[in-house]
Amino acid sequence: MTELRKRGGGDRDAENISDKDTDGDDRIGVGGEGDRDSKPDTDTPEVQPSVDNTPKCLNKALAGMSSRWKNWWIRGILTLTMISGFFLIIYMGPLPLMLMVLAIQIKCFQEIITIGYRVYHSYELPWFRTLSWYFLLCVNYFFYGETVAENFGNLVQRDEPLQFLVRYHRFISFALYLLGFCMFVLSLVKKHYRLQFYMFAWTHVTLLIVVSQSHLVIQNLFEGLIWFIVPISTVICNDITAYICGFFFGRTPLIKLSPKKTWEGFIGGFFSTVMFGFIFAYLLAQYNYFVCPVEYSESNSFLIDCEPSDLFVLQDYTLPSVLQTVFRWKTVKLYPFQIHSIALSTFASLIGPFGGFFASGFKRAFKIKDFADTIPGHGGIMDRFDCQYLVATFVHVYLTSFIRGPNPSKVLQQVLVLQPEQQLSIFNALKSHLTETGMIPPAIRGP
Amino acid sequence: MTELRHRGPGEDDVLKQQQQQQQQESEVRTDGEAPSDSEIKPDPGVPSTVDDTPEVLNKALSGMSSRWKNWWVRGILTLAMISFFFIIIYLGPMVLMMIVLCVQIKCFHEIIMIGYSVYHSYHLPWFRTLSWYFLLCVNYFFYGETVTDYFSALVQREEPLRILSKYHRFISFTLYLTGFCMFVLSLVKKHYRLQFYMFGWTHVTLLIVVTQSHLIIHNLFEGMIWFIVPISCVICNDIMAYMFGFFFGRTPLIKLSPKKTWEGFIGGFFATVVFGLLLSYVMAGWRYFVCPVEFNNDSNRFEVDCEPSDLFQLQDYTLPSVLQSLIGWETVRIYPFQIHSVALSAFASLIGPFGGFFASGFKRAFKIKDFANTIPGHGGIMDRFDCQYLMATFVNVYIGSFIRGPNPSRVMQQLLALRLDQQLHIFNTLRAHLIDKGLLSANQEATAA
Question: Complex ipTM, two decimals?
Fold first, then answer.
């Protein structure tokens, strides 16, 4: 298999991904030829030279086997390594998790941007590398600033410079972005206009995909670690079980984009993932550590302790009569969250793969085998995370629509930012409302 | 000049022309070689310039030389557009919102058409449908958010609207996902790259065009003055910079737009600041411009009536002594809003033009003279609105940061949506906070109504 060649040169080698002729389809003047993707992928010479990242020790241990089994073993070992790494970081707490999400986001951004450079031979374009990273920084500053302002209220209230930064956060972010925009305009060079606009657009679309989703992942995390762990696990599970079901039972191809996927794998993966999600949710819902919203306490640390909400309290559900006859139980004790987990697993198995197809289409369009070679046997970070993106957005939208109303501490933050007169009027309105509903006794006339 | 030909054929014929021109074109073209503005060859792959000038105008100006004719056409159209703008303002907020929506759709259409002609993707399966579908989704999402905020009482009353608004994000996301899945299913073997390009092109266009028009509507709801003054400052800067450049222009400003000069830039800056000061003085006196737009639930129409806030009350400012000796006045009565207008005009003249340079660079990159030919003498709608976009975002961010904080009624709504024990908790915290700040004394709280 091609990925077992020795590690090649660096990015410069990639010049031989000559897209000069494939660029022809986007030049004005080439009469109606359209895309040059008519060649089947196998005889395309433009695949990047796969580099072998496998550590030497692994190579030695598996030296005896044939290359096919070797590949299978490498993939398997790396899968287990990644999953254990995932559990380890969960154990370490919210802050390492946030940092890990940030690191993954930066790596995904870098992988996609590098592909853009290769496609457009724009690696040497003046300023552009700096500008791409600058835009990444700006957008991250904006999103993480919003997160900090919402969730780290205690920290912010205490520090004077932080308060200033939070109050004028949007203005500062916008000014930073504008600076980058003006630098871009000033950097336009006569011979490279089109390239520069392409890279500008490429950067922005990448930012849109990568940064906004990672921001939503962090938002989900603050709702409770379970909203972070269960979706990611169900996607991983769907990947693995669809592969296994396809391996044993696969016959009918699913979609032309990914010839290795089969309907049997798809459906088998769906059912297994729903069951897995159901059971996994049951396991996690018992622990406060996973279930409680992450809060930043006065003592400069993360606090995950609370009274679990109704979602995470066992309740009795009467089975419909059909299932009653099958199982011979009348009622079953479930967490309501498990019902939600069915929705999450369903989405992860039915719609999540479209993210994978999108990435496959992208790779075919730009004639690359993998996004990068970061993980031996698997490809780049983007290859692992392509299905996760849609799921992160879905979970966030699901949370805000069906699970929680406004977050009380967030609302409190907003109240404290208002002008004093507005605070007073809100105070009075709230007071009359609470008095009406009997939460506080009626006012006693004082001196 | 080429735009004085008779009105050309429609869209399909234009494409046939393109194909004929393409066959005459040489094979390989390196990109980025930008012809200077004077070589206005109709480029292949571009809708050839058609002359939209109405017959009546052509007749009236038939006597003059083509250069003056062009100048007159531009001038008359400018006046027509400005008067149209004033009429719309007079007609009210609802009509303004509709116009913003129309302008947005037209800009989107123009940019997408350029994408089609660049990539010859006009006949790509599904793609036209998908682009418009995405535009619809994103608009639905943004307008839904606005409607929920400002029309809250109306929404709460009507049952279907209430459900739509409660699950708004979910519904918008589902609609978008449907489009995304349709895109993935529509990927055709020979056209992968084209399709991804068009997908990227559509999304960047949406990002630029739809978010900005949404922000313009937000500004409008703050008060029409926040809509009118920024747009007028940008228009004024365009015109003034042109005039100053015409009379005094010598040093070129930037290679991207060889016609722009430093004299025009600086002269335009000062003229726009002065214009902004005068215009805000005139407008700040009228409630119609100054009050936030509200939807009156009983009469089901927009209401623009209120007690003007402090920004719009005349106040005395002591001039610094330098100016005192110059002008001979000690104090001057101005609206505080006029000071903000200086910031808005400064942005419009200094940073706004970068939006114009961006559009010029874009046109050079894709070798087109104008975005389209909608307005005779001026080009497409995008050509007129390219500087406005940065301005709209700036005004929105400015208002959000410096003028008002979060909307108190919205915060109140969120408060009332919480559970009662959470409300009580917030009530106690707020009480402690207010007492701390001295806004509430401990026993005053007991008697506050």
Answer: 0.78
